Inverse folding.
């Protein structure tokens, strides 16, 4: 199924022509639970990984949290709760059976800390043929993103690794990649999702505009919006930066001050991939794809709401933005919680 974003409620570049030259395209990934293969673009799916290519492990310091869990237990907990939510419920009857309750309590008890190297896990696999805003280096047509499923001291985020490759050179494939001996929590374990790429136009967040234009937009919002359509006329939520997982485009900041990401070489880095805790929220309803609007209005009673298909949570439902240096693919990426 495709995913289709409605045209913006207002052509903001017609209202403010100064925005027109600042327009950028971004590719919304629209990840939804499925069974992707290594030959497909995906979020949290299997990677097209050559058998002779060493699998990445993280040996960096991790923030100590307790208790730990395992990848298998995260999957088991989700499966158990998903099955429980699907059953008919009656007043006064527990959601979980005694057997299920014992499983959840065992998982919640967790595991003790480990200092072993942690095998990284797949986060995204993006083929250039599917993602128009993915601009791979010469000779490459596939981006693979992995991370260590633990917070790291620098940004209190998982440590990400980017791998660029040519899919035609991956012939003999690794079928059973290493699994981490432990993970911090289920927050950093993406559900396997197929993607439905869609290219849309974005404009800079208010924080990226010069002060004069920023104040003009704020004044226009105050004049135009009503209680009924406040979200549609809110530049930050309905007219500038799209929510959800996406490639390229503009970024937005929430709890941290807006600032450019600068590579140690002095070059301003560019947004590559945004990992979002939700596909939309109460303030960004105009971005809900046409195909998901009925489900959003009438979400079924399920363990996972439709706006959290990947089941990844960054901080307090923030985003993780990965930046790369346009000067060289060899310069390390930067990841910020925003």
């Amino acid at each position: 199924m495709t995913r289709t974003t409605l045209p913006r409620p207002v052509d903001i570049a017609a209202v403010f022509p100064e925005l027109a030259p600042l327009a950028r395209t971004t590719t919304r990934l629209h990840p939804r639970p499925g069974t992707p293969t290594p030959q497909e673009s995906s979020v949290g799916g299997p990677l097209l990984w050559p058998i002779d290519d060493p699998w990445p492990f993280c040996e960096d310091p991790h923030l100590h949290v307790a208790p730990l869990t395992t990848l298998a237990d995260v999957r088991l907990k989700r499966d158990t709760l998903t099955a429980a939510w699907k059953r008919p419920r009656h007043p006064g009857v527990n959601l979980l059976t005694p057997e299920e309750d014992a499983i959840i309590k065992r998982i919640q008890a967790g595991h003790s800390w480990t200092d072993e190297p942690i095998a990284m896990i797949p986060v995204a696999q993006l083929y250039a043929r599917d993602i128009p805003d993915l601009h791979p280096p010469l000779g490459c047509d596939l981006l693979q993103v992995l991370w260590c499923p633990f917070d790291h001291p620098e940004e209190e985020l998982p440590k990400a690794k980017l791998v660029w490759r040519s899919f035609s050179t991956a012939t003999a494939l690794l079928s059973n990649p290493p699994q981490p001996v432990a993970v911090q929590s289920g927050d950093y374990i993406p559900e396997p999702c197929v993607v439905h790429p869609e290219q849309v136009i974005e404009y800079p967040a208010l924080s990226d505009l010069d002060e004069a234009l920023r104040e003009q937009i704020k004044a226009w919002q105050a004049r135009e919006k009503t209680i009924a359509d406040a979200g549609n006329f809110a530049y930050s939520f309905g007219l500038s930066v799209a929510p959800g997982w996406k490639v390229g485009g503009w970024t937005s900041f929430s709890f941290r001050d807006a600032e450019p990401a600068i590579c140690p070489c002095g070059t301003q880095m560019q947004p590559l991939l945004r990992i979002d805790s939700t596909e939309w929220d109460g303030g960004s309803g105009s971005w809900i794809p046409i195909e998901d609007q009925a489900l959003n209005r009438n979400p079924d009673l399920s363990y996972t709401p439709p706006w959290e298909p990947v089941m990844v949570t960054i901080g307090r439902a923030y985003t993780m933005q990965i930046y790369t240096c346009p000067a060289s693919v060899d310069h390390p990426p930067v990841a910020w919680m925003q």
Q: What stands out?
A: DSSP finds seven helices and 14 strands in the chain. Residues 1-30+196-338 form one domain. The chain has a mean pLDDT of 93. The two ends are 30 Å apart (CA to CA).
